[in-house]
Amino acid sequence: MERGGEENICEDQLIQAILNGDREKYALLINRYRDELYRLVYAILRHPEDAEDVLQEAFVQIFLSLSRYEGRGLKTWMARIAVNKALDYKRKRSRGKEEQLAAEGRDDFGEGREPVRDAVGENVATREQASLVRKRVEELPAAYRDVIKAYYFQEKSYKEIAEETGLAVKSVEARLYRAKQWIRRHWKEEEFW
């Protein structure tokens, strides 16, 4: 394919190449939709650093879910994942405010809710990259590794993880947050794409 043709590659070819392990095509996919998805996420969160963090999570989710994409509007499908991630993040932040109000003796918001998230299952885009992700997860510190595996691979809720580990739900949230921060500091994005 000619260099100039990279921009014109159709979505089906792009997805198939990514599923076959072509890291450059995934970078092309990210570059193609990054700005638009960032604007969507930023419109919800209104904070540049939060929007950037959430967008990174969305791209990981997109990659892990790509094998389940049904071929009906890639941009719309990716946007839905990014928006859901942003809404999840916003809900978590709101839940923190609810807990603060509850601690102050006010219950203005009612019960907290578990975040809505796209399922991350065993059907990842490629075996090679799934193997790499799992190998890298094994390198995480034990406290982070266990919650990452339970939340992302086993699709357990914060409450389920808390019950199994004997931790408070807030502690599970904190460990997941710290695990993501650790991953951002220690993993290089290009290792996976």
UniProtKB/TrEMBL annotation:
<dbReference type="GO" id="GO:0016987">
    <property type="term" value="F:sigma factor activity"/>
</dbReference>
<dbReference type="InterPro" id="IPR036388">
    <property type="entry name" value="WH-like_DNA-bd_sf"/>
</dbReference>
<dbReference type="InterPro" id="IPR013325">
    <property type="entry name" value="RNA_pol_sigma_r2"/>
</dbReference>
<protein>
    <submittedName>
        <fullName>RNA polymerase sigma factor SigW</fullName>
    </submittedName>
</protein>
<dbReference type="InterPro" id="IPR013324">
    <property type="entry name" value="RNA_pol_sigma_r3/r4-like"/>
</dbReference>
<comment type="similarity">
    <text>Belongs to the sigma-70 factor family. ECF subfamily.</text>
</comment>
<keyword id="KW-0731">Sigma factor</keyword>
<dbReference type="GO" id="GO:0003677">
    <property type="term" value="F:DNA binding"/>
</dbReference>
<dbReference type="InterPro" id="IPR007627">
    <property type="entry name" value="RNA_pol_sigma70_r2"/>
</dbReference>
<keyword id="KW-0805">Transcription regulation</keyword>
<keyword id="KW-0804">Transcription</keyword>
<dbReference type="InterPro" id="IPR013249">
    <property type="entry name" value="RNA_pol_sigma70_r4_t2"/>
</dbReference>
<feature type="domain" description="RNA polymerase sigma-70 region 2">
    <location>
        <begin position="29"/>
        <end position="95"/>
    </location>
</feature>
<dbReference type="GO" id="GO:0006352">
    <property type="term" value="P:DNA-templated transcription initiation"/>
</dbReference>
<dbReference type="Pfam" id="PF04542">
    <property type="entry name" value="Sigma70_r2"/>
</dbReference>
<feature type="domain" description="RNA polymerase sigma factor 70 region 4 type 2">
    <location>
        <begin position="133"/>
        <end position="182"/>
    </location>
</feature>
<dbReference type="InterPro" id="IPR014284">
    <property type="entry name" value="RNA_pol_sigma-70_dom"/>
</dbReference>
<dbReference type="Pfam" id="PF08281">
    <property type="entry name" value="Sigma70_r4_2"/>
</dbReference>
<dbReference type="InterPro" id="IPR039425">
    <property type="entry name" value="RNA_pol_sigma-70-like"/>
</dbReference>
